[in-house]
Design a protein that fits this description.
By secondary structure, the protein is α/β, with parallel strands linked by helices. The protein has seven helices and eight strands, in the order E-H-E-H-E-H-E-H-E-E-H-E-H-E-H. Helix 3 links the parallel strand 3 (78-83) and strand 4 (109-113). Helix 3 (91-105) runs parallel beside helix 4.
């Protein structure tokens, strides 16, 4: 484990500020206060994922349109949720969803969730990314692997989610050696079940492993029965304060 320093929790070892990536809250009609909170000035956000109905849905949703517009007005990047189903999703269906996200909600990029990790799947993922950039030249592309993929994926996307899972696994996790060849702003960590008393420890682990975009929550998946990302953590104000006061060195 790298040597501990006095670097503030909101700052990575390279001096790059840590920010929040929001995997996607419950529908704005169900959680209006949480979506409104994301647009509060000064919140250290990298991006927010808009997942209307396991994707963009079948028709424009006025509540999601309003929420996305409020975030963009606040200068927050909004990403459309696209499900790759570990490579099983058809290219046509994926492209159709991407167009709906762009046409209806004006998203700034995409989270390609359940992205495969194997080298053999890389050409098809590369094809998808190339097409997404062709239809939206400034699209920010995040690959939601959830664990470390073949390093070739890092050459194609803006960011990779290299950890998504429980605190019980994260606290003993290690970064793949090849990630040291890239800056921290290329990597994202999503961790659920993080107790309030271990929040600083979790932020240190993210810094040690070189991940500048994070999302930590005390919510759990209840053994896979619920989505731990759909509501804000109970310590939302604490984590915003910790990241927001980090001063780059």
């Amino acid at each position: 484990m790298p040597h501990l320093t006095s670097t503030p929790a909101g700052t990575t070892g390279t001096g790059l500020r840590t920010a929040l990536g929001i995997p996607g809250y419950a529908h704005p009609l169900v959680a209006p206060a949480q979506w409104a909170e994301l647009a509060r000035p000064g919140t250290p956000l990298d991006w927010v994922v808009l997942d209307v109905a396991a994707g963009p849905g079948t028709r424009p949703d006025p509540h999601c349109l309003e929420a996305a517009g409020r975030l963009r007005d606040a200068g927050v990047r909004v990403l459309g949720h696209l499900d790759l189903t570990y490579g099983a999703r058809s290219f046509g269906d994926l492209l159709s969803d991407a167009h709906r996200h762009l046409d209806w909600y004006g998203v700034d990029g995409f989270l390609l969730d359940r992205c495969p990790t194997e080298r053999t799947a890389l050409p098809e993922v590369r094809r998808a990314i190339t097409t997404l950039r062709a239809i939206s030249g400034t699209a920010h592309i995040v690959l939601g692997h959830g664990r470390h993929p073949h390093p070739g994926y890092a050459e194609n996307a803006d960011q990779l989610v290299t950890f998504s899972g429980p605190w019980s696994d994260y606290r003993w996790s290690q970064a793949a050696e090849w990630t040291a060849d890239y800056p921290p702003d290329r990597f994202c960590h999503f961790v659920h079940g993080v107790p309030r008393g271990h929040l600083d420890e979790a932020l240190r682990i993210a810094r040690w492993q070189g991940a500048a975009t994070i999302y930590f929550t005390d919510r759990t998946d209840r053994d896979g029965r619920v989505d731990p990302w759909e509501t804000m953590p109970g310590y939302w104000d604490d984590i915003v304060s910790r990241l927001g006061t980090g001063v780059s060195e």
